[in-house]
């Protein structure tokens, strides 16, 4: 485990990373930063010189016209440098945002493409929120680092010019100024790292607050919040978390306060020594007023440059830690093979056999296996149902078959080869799947069906919509297949009912035309007759194709060639519906109970089949 006070990369490595990113996104960003630093330092030097130079001219009694020309010259230089500074600052702004957006996009891409188990891993999720924080605003590390580096360069330019000016004074003075400032920097650095060392605590508060915010504002919670009076609960959790966060911030500020106090004492001592020396020099060697003014300003300015350099490096250190956290996220290890895996071509005309060889699976942190010692072969073209009560392990089994999870023991084989060998993205191309949670896009009907923006085959979209039984519904929409779905992005978007959405998902699965179909209870929200109708439709559409149907409503899947009845993570019974009914075991008992429920309690749908 790496030290939390240190990032995986140092300041220089992170600066190089940002330069590389900027070079690919906006080359102008670092260039404008350097020019801005030169303009700002130049302005400061001009401001330093204006008083002493004019005073010297007065002392030397130069003609009035020369004096006026000097004043005008300085005014012009200051005007140009200030204008140039403002122009460079504005010019770099958009570029800096573009670089940050590039990194944000990389985070999105990592999240969307990462190995599925990472998405269930709390450490990955925490790392993700740190990475998101570092790219979430203009003031955050990935954008603020440019300002910090510009400030450092400004201070270094100023430091060099002022050092040259002060070279006429005693070298010990320069040593004292640098030494006290450096000591302040070291103390500050120690205190400033407090925030980073306690980032997990801060991140936990942010996560919880963000969750409450999501629940409070998400439409899907709106009804429950009202019916169950969840508002009080939400407000309670929010208040308690805010209390924890406030306490955290108070501790952090206390740590920073100590750092600032030590720094203040050192600054006081440093300036005191410097000014005492200058005054002694004036009294003993009789410096001219213009020289006194120049050195006086140079000494105070010089300390400011040195402090500036060290303070900005301290700030850069914090920003570097944030950038390190971002890079660690982007480089988060992938347990699955992607580009380094063997390619696999999904051919709907080819036969595929899926085999689970003594497969067990245990969720990370769990004390027992969710699935244990499952051995199963799904033959090409076979329709297999996986049924069982809630929590039996059906979804977990589908996750293993679809390659979202790898077994903790045993192997999943496709045509006899361990699926871990393949590029996982290629393996996913083998499946068209519909899961319990729909992933409806805020996009047009056609884009939802084809899952792409360009190159949509509209004839195929209409065909799939027709097969899914949605033709009339889509024809009645204002823009047909171009009608946007959902109202979060589009004002004129349409809201589809549960059944219509289900059919749209069916059309999407048909459009994908993959060799294996997996349905994980996508019909849970539908009534049994609608569920049966949908399952039969899927069955018909995917005729001859290997298919998996998961349901806890046993009647929905009795058309399948084989039914696996899952209990406590094991295949308790297996066979056709008729064979299982004849056996009179747990499946038959559950089927009777469910049939009775639908006949007596829920309605007459099951009896009607
Ligand atoms: N991400 C997870 N981490 C830990 N345990 C999990 C996770 N997902 C599921 N489980 C556990 O695994 C067991 C099986 O869950 P699974 O979702 O596979 O069952 P299921 O048969 O599909 O249930 P349902 O019919 O309710 O969807 C449950 O006890 C569940 O709590």
From TrEMBL:
Q: SUPFAM superfamilies attached here?
A: ABC transporter transmembrane region, P-loop containing nucleoside triphosphate hydrolases
Q: Name the InterPro entries on file.
A: AAA+_ATPase, ABC1_TM_dom, ABC1_TM_sf, ABC_transporter-like_ATP-bd, P-loop_NTPase, Type_1_exporter
Bilayer topology term: Multi-pass membrane protein
Name all ABC transporter domain ranges.
354-593
Q: The organism sits in which domain of life?
A: Bacteria
Where does it mainly reside? membrane
Localization per record: Cell membrane
Instruction: Tell me where in this chain the ABC transmembrane type-1 domain is found.
Output: 143-318
One cellular-component annotation, GO: plasma membrane
Can you name this protein? Answer: ATP-binding cassette subfamily B protein
Species of the source: Catenibacillus scindens
């Amino acid at each position: 485990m790496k030290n939390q006070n240190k990032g995986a990369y140092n300041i220089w490595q992170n600066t190089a990373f940002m330069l590389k990113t900027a070079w690919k996104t906006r080359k102008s960003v670092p260039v404008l930063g350097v020019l801005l630093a030169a303009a700002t330092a130049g302005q400061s030097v001009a401001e330093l010189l204006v008083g002493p130079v004019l005073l010297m001219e007065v002392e030397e009694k130069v003609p009035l016209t020369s004096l006026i020309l000097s004043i005008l010259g300085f005014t012009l230089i200051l005007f140009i440098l200030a204008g140039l500074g403002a122009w460079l600052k504005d010019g770099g702004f958009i570029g800096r945002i573009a670089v940050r957006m590039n990194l944000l996009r990389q985070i999105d891409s990592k999240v969307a493409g990462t190995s599925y188990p990472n998405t269930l891993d709390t450490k990955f999720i925490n790392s993700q929120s740190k990475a998101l924080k570092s790219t979430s605003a203009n003031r955050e590390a990935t954008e603020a680092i440019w300002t910090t580096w510009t400030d450092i360069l400004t201070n270094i330019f100023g430091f060099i010019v002022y050092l040259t000016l002060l070279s006429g004074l005693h070298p010990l003075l320069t040593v004292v100024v640098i030494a006290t400032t450096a000591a302040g920097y070291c103390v500050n650095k120690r205190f400033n790292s407090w925030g980073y060392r306690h980032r997990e605590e801060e991140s936990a508060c942010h996560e919880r607050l963000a969750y409450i915010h999501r629940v409070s504002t998400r439409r899907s919670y709106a009804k429950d919040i009202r019916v169950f009076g969840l508002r009080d609960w939400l407000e309670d959790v929010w208040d308690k978390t805010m209390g924890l966060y406030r306490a955290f911030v108070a501790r952090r500020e206390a740590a920073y306060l100590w750092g600032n106090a030590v720094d203040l004492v050192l600054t006081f001592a440093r300036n005191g020594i410097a000014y005492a020396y200058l005054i002694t020099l004036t009294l003993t060697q009789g410096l001219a007023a213009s020289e006194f003014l120049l050195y006086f300003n140079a000494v105070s300015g010089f300390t400011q440059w040195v402090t500036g350099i060290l303070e900005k490096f301290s700030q850069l250190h914090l920003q570097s830690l944030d950038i390190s956290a971002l890079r660690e996220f982007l480089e988060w290890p992938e347990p699955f093979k992607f580009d380094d895996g063997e390619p696999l071509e999904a051919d709907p005309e080819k036969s595929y056999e899926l085999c689970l060889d003594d497969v067990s699976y245990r969720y990370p942190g769990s004390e027992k296996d969710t699935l244990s010692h499952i051995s199963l072969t799904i033959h090409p073209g076979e329709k297999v149902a996986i049924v069982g009560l809630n929590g039996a392990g059906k979804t977990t089994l589908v996750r293993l078959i679809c390659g979202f999870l790898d077994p903790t023991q045993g192997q999943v084989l496709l045509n006899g080869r361990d699926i871990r060998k393949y590029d996982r993205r290629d393996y996913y191309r083998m499946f068209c799947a519909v899961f319990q949670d729909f992933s409806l896009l805020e996009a047009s009907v056609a884009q939802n069906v084809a899952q792409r923006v360009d190159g949509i085959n509209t004839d195929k979209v209409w065909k799939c919509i027709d097969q899914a039984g949605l033709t009339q519904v889509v024809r009645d929409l204002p823009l047909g297949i171009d009608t946007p779905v959902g109202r979060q992005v589009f004002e004129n978007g349409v809201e589809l009912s549960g059944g219509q959405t289900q059919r749209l998902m069916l059309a999407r699965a048909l459009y994908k035309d993959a060799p294996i179909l997996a349905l994980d209870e996508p019909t849970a929200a539908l009534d049994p007759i609608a569920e049966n109708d949908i399952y039969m439709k899927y069955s018909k559409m995917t005729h001859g194709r290997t298919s998996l149907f998961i349901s806890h409503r046993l009647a929905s899947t009795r058309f399948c060639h084989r039914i696996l009845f899952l209990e406590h993570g094991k295949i308790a019974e297996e066979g056709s519906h008729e064979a299982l009914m004849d056996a009179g075991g747990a499946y038959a008992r559950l089927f009777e109970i469910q049939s009775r429920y639908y006949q007596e309690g829920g309605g007459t749908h099951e009896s009607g089949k």
